[in-house]
Design goal:
Layout: H1 2-37, E1 78-80, E2 91-92, E3 101-103, H2 104-124, E4 129-133, H3 138-151, E5 173-178, H4 194-202, E6 208-212, H5 217-220, E7 225-231, H6 234-242, H7 247-263, H8 268-271
Parallel strand pairs: 2-4
Antiparallel strand pairs: 1-3, 4-5, 5-7, 6-7
Length: 281
């Protein structure tokens, strides 16, 4: 009798323990399921030919009549471009008050490019390059634009950008001409010059693009300017050159890639600085 009572007591004690074990197992399974359900199947990735770390958002800023720069926008780190080629600089076609200014990295790249064409000069007979125009402030551009309108009976002929729309205000745009155009009015006939053809072929190696190509006038809405270089950095310049793009087309592609990345759940903080939207006029 005592043995039977002992067996019954043991069973009574085991039943709650077994139930608890089963409950714990069920709860554990539910918990694991909930955790798995909360993990995304695939994290958003940056799916664009140029990596984010290979682009500087300040260097690829777009300035045109649809993407206007603020009148108070002044680029950082403007420096005077060295004017003596023997010391690693580039000759100036004009000497504005305060000198020819560009952003530091852009100025260094321009001087490096000038040295490269000088190195090729003995073999190919290239003439010296001259820096004719570099950084222009909003107020300077406004004066130039109004003067052009006055001269052209109020018509915007596409040769001078309106204030805020000038690539020169970025501190990354510059007009570079061959020696025999240093004192002449610029036009698209300059494209025939071997120095301009060299720049069109090699400027991307130094981080520049031809800002207003001949075959992109309907997009840039600016006449062909084989002398106008724009610094964007080597990775971006290479991509633009290899794909025959203008800066407007690159910007459109980049903004689409950013939106796709965000729609996929990407981290906005990683792309925030690259977002550009048209200016409301």
């Amino acid at each position: 009798m005592k043995k039977l009572l002992c067996v019954l007591c043991v069973l009574a004690l085991m039943i709650p323990a077994l139930s608890l074990a089963e409950l714990d197992e069920e709860e554990l399974e539910i918990e694991e399921f909930d955790l798995d359900a909360g993990v995304p199947a695939e994290k958003a990735v940056w799916d664009f030919p140029v990596a984010l770390e290979d682009m500087n958002p300040e260097y690829i800023i777009l300035a045109n009549k649809h993407y206007l720069l603020d009148k108070n926008y002044v680029p950082k780190d403007l420096v005077k471009v060295p004017s003596k080629p023997a010391d690693g600089g580039i000759k100036w076609a004009v000497k504005p008050k305060g000198g020819q200014l560009l952003r530091k990295e852009c100025a260094e790249a321009l001087c490096a490019m000038n040295q490269a064409i000088r190195d090729d000069a003995p073999e190919y007979g290239y003439k010296d390059l001259y820096l004719k125009s570099a950084y222009r402030s909003y107020s300077t551009q406004k004066t130039m634009y109004n003067n052009r309108l006055k001269k052209n009976h109020g018509k915007d002929d596409g040769w001078v950008s309106k204030p805020g729309a000038s690539d020169h205000q970025t501190g990354l745009g510059c007009d570079v001409v061959p020696k025999n155009w240093a004192n002449k009015a610029m036009n698209d006939k300059m494209m025939k010059e071997p120095e301009c053809q060299w720049m069109a072929e090699h400027c991307y190696e130094f981080g520049f693009i031809i800002r207003y190509p001949e075959d992109k006038q309907d997009i840039t809405e600016i006449n062909t300017e084989p002398w106008h270089l724009r610094y964007v950095g080597i990775p971006v310049a290479t991509y633009i050159w290899e794909n025959n793009l203008c800066l407007e087309e690159f910007t459109e592609q980049l903004q689409e890639a950013i939106q796709e990345y965000l729609d996929a759940g990407g981290d906005r903080s990683k792309v925030e600085a690259f977002i550009q939207e048209p200016t409301e006029e």
